[in-house]
Each structure stands twice: as C-alpha cells, then as structure tokens.
Amino acid sequence: MFKRRSFISTIAATPFITEALMTETAQAADLSNTVYLDLKYGQVTITLRPDLAPKSVERIKTLTSQGFYNGCQFFRVIAGFMAQTGDPTNTGTSGSQLPNLPAEFTTDASFLTGTVGLARTSDPNSANSQFFICFAPATFLDGQYTIVGQVTAGMDAVQQIKKGDPQSGAVVNPDSIITMKMAG
Questions:
Q1: Residue range 131-155, pLDDT digits in tens
Q2: Which of 160, 136, 172, 163 has the alpha carbon at shortest distance from 37?
Q3: I need a labelling partner for 34 at 20 to 30 A (CA). Which of 24, 43, 55, 102 fits?
C-alpha cells in the first residue's frame, strides 16, 4: 500500500513539476531578453523583441554585454517624440565597429509610448548601434524603422531625460546612460 501511494503521489505531482520547470524556463528566456538601463532618474527595464527583429536584437545584446552603451549620451531628444542614444562620439554620426545591419522594418507592431527602435540614416540598411525610446506613440514610423524592444518598467525615468532643441533635438549638457546591462 505504501509503495502504491508513493507511485500515485509521484504521478499526481508530475504536472506540477513540469509546469514549474516550464515557468522557470520561460522566466530564464525572459531574462535573456531583458535589459536594465540605469539613468540618474532611475532604472528602466526594456524587454527585447527578437520575434520582430532577431538580428537587431542580437546586436543590442552583443553591444550591451560589451559595455558599449555605458556612458553614451542622449544627444538627440525631442519632447513628445523620442530620446536617441547609442553613439560613442555623442554626435549622432557614429556607431560601433560592427557592420551595419540589414533593415528589419517592423510591420506587425507599432511605435507606441516606450517602444525602443533602431536609428538609421536615409539608407534603410544603416542601423548599427544607435537606438531611440519613444516618449509617445509615433506610428508614422511603422514599417520604416525597426522595433527592438519595449520599456516595461521605468518609463517615468525615461520621461525625465533632458529635452533638446524643439526642431533638431540637440541637447546642451545631455543626460547619459549610467549603465546598460543584460538581466540574464
């Protein structure tokens, strides 16, 4: 009787073990696509979207893991639109030493408040390391730029980033990324 009960108890517990392992696996996957961006106003959590732009997300992960973004300034910030960073020269004219990325323009998601997209020149295949975070919906960018993630916590800190010139977005004494790191 005791052995039979143990066997039945083990079988009954199996779905819970499987469910727990699945939840743990999902959480690990979420952490591998989670970025923590530290600003003087607080921490921002960004969930990356490899389902929308796998090559672009991989680039963000690579550069983040290398510490590339630490200290980068928000050199172009337009109130009501977005804050741009990711240029080590803080001029908007440079990127990483890695080659530019092919366009992965997003057609099945929209640029909304907190959306993180890759910046580029007029050449669709020129995205490299620069990215921007939308302060408000910017659906006019849909299908023309690549979405790499979404702010899931700390949007209040993003909204406090120092704004620049209303036309050009150029910022005098801009705010900087303190650190940007992968969660998992």
A1: 999 999 999 999 999 999 999 999 9
A2: 160
A3: 102
Give yes or no for a contact between 75 and 84, defined as CB atoms under 8 angstroms apart: yes
CA atoms within 13 A on the CB side of 153: 8
Beta bridge partners of 51: none
Is 14 found in the same domain as 71?
no
CB atoms near residue 1 (< 10 Å): 5
pLDDT of residue 29: 55
> Which spans in the chain are helix H?
2-32, 54-65, 155-159
Shared domain check, 27 and 115: no
Instruction: With CA atoms as reference, report the closest residue to 63 among 99, 91, 29, 28.
Output: 99
Is residue 137 domain-shared with residue 46, that is, in the same domain? yes
Contact predicate 115/148, CB 8 Å: no
Identify the domain containing residue 22 by its residue range.
1-32
